């Protein structure tokens, strides 16, 4: 790999990371500020993405999603526990996981 290739690859990676963090911030902000039209658009984008996947990609995506949920699950439950009872959390978590029914 040449120096120019390494620089280009770094620029692509930085652009990807910036995009990822911007979308995350936008999503958090939309929920925090109660922007239902934006939240609905994000949900529609997620569903369109999922529908575009091949069966092989769906399997790969589901594995990655499962790993993400395992990794972030404890933090999510702790955050939810600040405002919800354990019973409410138990009822709510399956709704987060079932992305076919936003």
Q: If you had to describe this structure to a student in words, what would you say it looks like?
A:
The chain has 102 residues and is mostly helical. 83% of the residues lie in helices and 0% in strands. The protein contains four helices and no strands. It has helices spanning 3-32, 36-52, 55-80, 86-97. The longest helix has 30 residues, at 3-32. The mean pLDDT is 85.
Name the shape in a single word: extended
Class inferred from helices and paired strands: mainly alpha
Query: How many β-strand runs?
Result: 0
**Rg computed from alpha carbons, rounded to a whole number of angstroms:** 17 Å
What's the rounded overall pLDDT mean?
85
Low-confidence stretches: none
Tell me the major beta sheet.
none
Q: Give the topology string: H per helix, E per strand.
A: HHHH
The number of helical runs is 4
Distance between the termini: 44 Å
Percent of residues in helices: over 70%
What order do the helices and strands come in, and which of them pair?
Blueprint: H1 3-32, H2 36-52, H3 55-80, H4 86-97
Features:
102 residues; mainly alpha; extended
What is this entry, summarized?
The protein is mostly helical. It has helices at residues 3-32, 36-52, 55-80, 86-97. The radius of gyration is 17 Å and the shape is extended.
